[in-house]
Amino acid sequence: RWLVAVGLVLLGAGPGLSVVKTLPDEDDEYQPGLVGAYTVGGQTVERIDPDIAFDWKGGSPDPRLESGRFRARWQGNLLVRQPGRYRWHAFVSGAIRVRVNGREVLNGKSPQTVKPGWVSGGEFEIAFGEKPLEVEYSRTGQTGRVMLYWSSTHFPLEPVPPQLLFSPLLAVICNGLNGASGWPVLTVAIAAMFVA
Fold first, then answer.
1. What's the pLDDT band for 20 if we cut at 50, 70, 90?
2. Phi, psi of 41 (to 5 degrees)
3. 52 and 117 in contact (C-beta within 8 Å)?
4. E strands within the chain?
5. pLDDT of residue 21
6. What 3-state DSSP class applies to 173?
7. Between 21 and 158, whose confidence is greater?
8. Residue 191 and residue 196: Cα distance in Å, rounded?
9. pLDDT higher than threshold 90 for residue 26
10. Nearest-10 Cα torsion for 23, 25, 27, 32
């Protein structure tokens, strides 16, 4: 009898490796948080962020990147617990764009380049369930700050709760295994052994 074993081998996993300490149970499809990609110049780093609430001031968004203007992009899923009308808001120093389920729900920038300000989108109807969420941010001035909020017919203005933000586990693993060159460093190893 032959037993075929399949395993994962991580090769060249360097500073681009996101923190994934243990894999969840087989039934778990999602990892809490959003996959965030931060770009300064030609260098991009990725990590898992529990929410979108940052005040970088004049510093770098990640210790692996230099200070200065940068772009950030978060992707994942949002769990909408109640259907209804929702509105998105951001307290931001820079520019922000938010898409929920492929629909743009917020697009704006702070009124001043020095101080953060509020930007708000229009109301829209959203159904119950998991919805794809994509947030893009650009630091346009000397300081960087972004805090994502929402409001609804069910609740007043509040930060988007971290417990409602998820990323597919496969995306978390694959994004976490990209090296500095951007090439995936995940290799599937197949080994066959004879079992008596």
1. very low
2. 60, -125
3. no
4. 2-10, 30-32, 34-40, 43-49, 53-57, 71-80, 84-93, 95-100, 103-109, 117-120, 124-126, 129-138, 144-152, 158-159, 165-168, 186-194
5. 39
6. helix
7. 158
8. 16
9. no
10. -50
- Read off the DSSP letter of residue 178: B
Q: What is the pLDDT of residue 8?
A: 39
**176 closest CA partner among 17, 33, 44, 24:** 17
Specify whether the CB–CB gap between 102 and 57 falls below 8 A.
Answer: no
CA–CA distance, 132 with 165 (Å, rounded to integer): 10
Beta-strand relationship, 43-49 and 34-40: antiparallel
136/68: higher pLDDT: 136
Q: How confident is the model at residue 30 (pLDDT cuts 50, 70, 90)?
A: confident
What residues have CB less than 8 Å from 139, skipping those under 6 apart? Answer: 56, 61, 69, 70, 71, 93, 94
CB 162 within 8 A of CB 33: yes
d(CA 178, CA 45): 9
Lowest mean pLDDT among 31-45, 156-170, 179-193: 179-193
User: For 170, phi and psi rounded to 5 degrees?
Assistant: -60, -40
Closest CA to 53 of 7, 85, 87, 96: 96
